[in-house]
Design a protein that fits this description.
Layout: H1 2-18, H2 23-34, H3 49-58, H4 67-83, H5 95-102
Length: about 110
């Protein structure tokens, strides 16, 4: 049990290192990327499902996490690391890459 708790602590710290956008920044981004010329999602439903789940986890204390939250955190960590492989920089023509990462709560243009 102690090993699982230690592992969960590592996941908690890595998740909060990788998700470098604040709750407010992420919520604003999710609303922005969901807004279209003809319709806009309700704020609570804006953005991707994963983005909404990340936002939900950001609002929790570590002691309130569920096993599903821990799995989401692991999945987000893997996806961000995979997208950042090779330490690609966001340049013209790669806005889709940056936007995908931002929908996970990671802005590659923010200083580390």
């Amino acid at each position: 049990m102690a090993n699982a708790a230690l592992h969960d602590d590592e996941v908690w710290h890595e998740f909060h290192r990788v998700v470098n956008m604040s709750s407010r920044e992420l919520a604003d981004w999710l609303r922005t990327c969901s807004a279209g010329p003809e319709a806009e999602s309700l704020p609570e439903q804006a953005g991707t499902l994963t983005g909404q789940q990340v936002l939900h986890v950001l609002g929790k204390r570590r002691t309130d996490l569920t096993p599903e939250d821990i799995e989401l955190m692991r999945r987000v960590i893997r996806r961000v690391h995979a997208e950042r492989r090779g330490n690609r920089e966001s340049v013209a023509g790669r806005t889709g890459w940056r936007h995908r990462l931002m929908s996970l709560g990671h802005d590659p243009l923010k200083p580390a």
